[in-house]
Amino acid sequence: MNVLVTGGTGNLGRATVARLRAVDIEPRVLSRKHGPGLITGDLRTGDGLAAALDGVDTVLHLATGYRNDLDITRALLDAARARGGTAPRIVYISIVGVDAIPLGYYRGKLAAERAIEGSGLPFALLRATQFHTLIEQIFRAQRVLPVLVAPPFSAQPIAAGEVAQRLVELVHSGATGRAADIGGPEVRTAREFGEQYQAARSGRRAVRTLSIPGATVRAFRAGHNLVPGAPYGRQTFAESLAAH
């Protein structure tokens, strides 16, 4: 099986590449850089995509442009459709709640989903909750503040490695369409996660919940970022903190 990974040098990408190799799939990793294990191409301009896609069965599209997810996804789809022979299957990673939470970044992810669905190519879409590392980064960014501020809603973070595992399962299964959303093993308030962050670092700062108005926060408070039912992930946020 020939697999191309976009975004393969990022947090999720590295974990996904490692899991592909663990099941004896040596993927091509698309990058604007040159180096061992990389195939050079640019999703922003389309340069190198034809060569990168040559002979590929499945594309794991993990790259994010933050402000231009739709643009880079369209470039990939155009290159995939232009390729002769059997079209590759696109496996795309998205975020739980992109259709209900009015964040600009989420709107871009939703637009990319819709472009893939309407592309005429075989595809699989997977939405996951936020990674443990994102929750940690939110608190780490406040290291100079006298208190630790938590947003007024709950979250269900998941380990990037567990999302990578599910992506590899989708590659092997050949499933198409939207897969079931996946989330972490526990739903806690952001304040509780902040307290766990403090405990892991023997911090003494108080954790305070910040009241934030607006439609985006209302959507998070309504639980649109959560996955009901049995969780897919097993590693808790506290276990993630302890691991590093």
From TrEMBL:
<dbReference type="Pfam" id="PF13460">
    <property type="entry name" value="NAD_binding_10"/>
</dbReference>
<protein>
    <submittedName>
        <fullName>Uncharacterized protein YbjT (DUF2867 family)</fullName>
    </submittedName>
</protein>
<dbReference type="GO" id="GO:0044877">
    <property type="term" value="F:protein-containing complex binding"/>
</dbReference>
<dbReference type="InterPro" id="IPR016040">
    <property type="entry name" value="NAD(P)-bd_dom"/>
</dbReference>
<dbReference type="InterPro" id="IPR036291">
    <property type="entry name" value="NAD(P)-bd_dom_sf"/>
</dbReference>
<dbReference type="InterPro" id="IPR051207">
    <property type="entry name" value="ComplexI_NDUFA9_subunit"/>
</dbReference>
<feature type="domain" description="NAD(P)-binding">
    <location>
        <begin position="7"/>
        <end position="172"/>
    </location>
</feature>
